[in-house]
Amino acid sequence: MIVLAADHGGYLLKEEVKKHLDAKGVQYIDCGSYTGESVDYPDMAKLACEKIQSGEAEKGIIFCGTGIGISIAANKMKGIRCCVCSDTFSAKYTRLHNDANVLSMGGRVVGPGLACEMVDIFLETEFEGGRHARRVEKLAQLEENWK
Ligand code: RB5
To answer: Domain residues for 77?
Structure first.
């Protein structure tokens, strides 16, 4: 299961990605925004990432105007490794090397074609493990020492 969320800056791109996921038969939970009304990106990040923390969703795709604000918020939640991407190389390597569980994109930065390509790569690429597992474990340790 995938979870989606967006603020008003990312709402339209979220809707485009939903059409793409529907066409592929990928199931998702949409945490909103449902209308494109002005909402605060930390609230939307929280709604989506809680679904990952609870185990209801395995991965998330989140959106704001730049993808930056909502990714900062997501990365403040335990167990979340969120990468803001605007190229397919980064979408691939953040799975291979960082085991990212959330992809963030900017609705004012990338178009729907590129966004959907990044979504496919992000969802289909497995974590490489090995030496990268040690580094990802160190990310979790940083969280434990959060000050
Ligand atoms: C909202 O106008 C905008 O600031 C937000 O979508 C995002 O880009 C923040 O990082």
So the answer is: 2-144
